[in-house]
Amino acid sequence: MPPKRKSGSASAADGDPEQLILEYLTRNNSPFGATDVATGLRNTVSKTIVSKTLATLADRGEITCKTFGKSSIYFPLQNNDDAASPDDLANMDQEITDLSGKADELKAAITSMSKELATLNAFLPTTDLAVQVAVMTDANDAAESRLTSLRRAAEGDGEPLVTAADRAAAMTRHATMRKAWVKRRRMFKDMWDLITENLPRKPVELMDELGIETDEMVGVELASIPEVVPPAAESRKGKGRAPPVVGKGAAASKKRRVGA
């Protein structure tokens, strides 16, 4: 029976360690330590052989080795053939500057166009405008027709829009409501003055607590509502009084009173 081989010897027999390690570094193109390479190869090559092989490849210049204290890092050779020249780098910098300026201009244009788009979107579309124009035209025609009727009625031509009876009824209702307003306003004031006469706190505080609002608080003034006298009340003003006597009758009447 042949003697058993060590794990490292067996790994070396399965493939060329140098080739395996070099391909691994080239494929990953990253810096590795010996332990990292052995782990990456799944221990198909022992760490001892990996360390020796990495050192050998570095000595031959096939890979690069950087030492940091007691640790050594290995990575594949970098191809500098495609490295940009100083002129190329300067041209690239200038191109970057130009593109940055254009980018700023485009951003400003986008901002301006966005504002313009928002302004345009605030207006109604053409189809909606046509509908709106038709609606407003009909409303204008109706207003013109009513205005014509009002003008004719004001000039005494045509049927009046408000009859005398309707006008008298409206004036009567207006006078009744205003009279009730004045009466209730006076009643409230009298009672409120009586209640708050000896009140230890300010009347306005109690009013606020009770939720009472006066005419002034809601912006209404009684004086702004005109007082209207209904036609019926005007006709009753002259009833019950004798008409004034003028002429000879008046002189005779005076004589009789004097003689009496």
TrEMBL record:
It comes from the Eukaryota. SUPFAM superfamilies: Winged helix' DNA-binding domain. Gene3D superfamilies: Winged helix-like DNA-binding domain superfamily/Winged helix DNA-binding domain. Signal peptide: none annotated. Transmembrane segments: none annotated. GO terms for cellular component: condensed nuclear chromosome; DNA recombinase auxiliary factor complex. Residues 162-219 form the Leucine zipper with capping helix domain. Residues 229-260 are annotated as: Disordered. One of its GO terms (biological process) is meiotic joint molecule formation. It is found in: Nucleus. Pfam families: LZ3wCH (PF18517), WHD_TBPIP (PF07106). Residues 89-116 form a coiled coil. Residues 17-75 form the Homologous-pairing protein 2 winged helix domain. GO terms for molecular function: double-stranded DNA binding; recombinase activator activity. The keyword Kinase does not apply. Keywords: Coiled coil, DNA recombination, Meiosis, Nucleus. Belongs to the HOP2 family. PANTHER family: HOMOLOGOUS-PAIRING PROTEIN 2 HOMOLOG (PTHR15938:SF0), TBP-1 INTERACTING PROTEIN (PTHR15938). This is Homologous-pairing protein 2 homolog. It comes from Allomyces macrogynus (strain ATCC 38327).
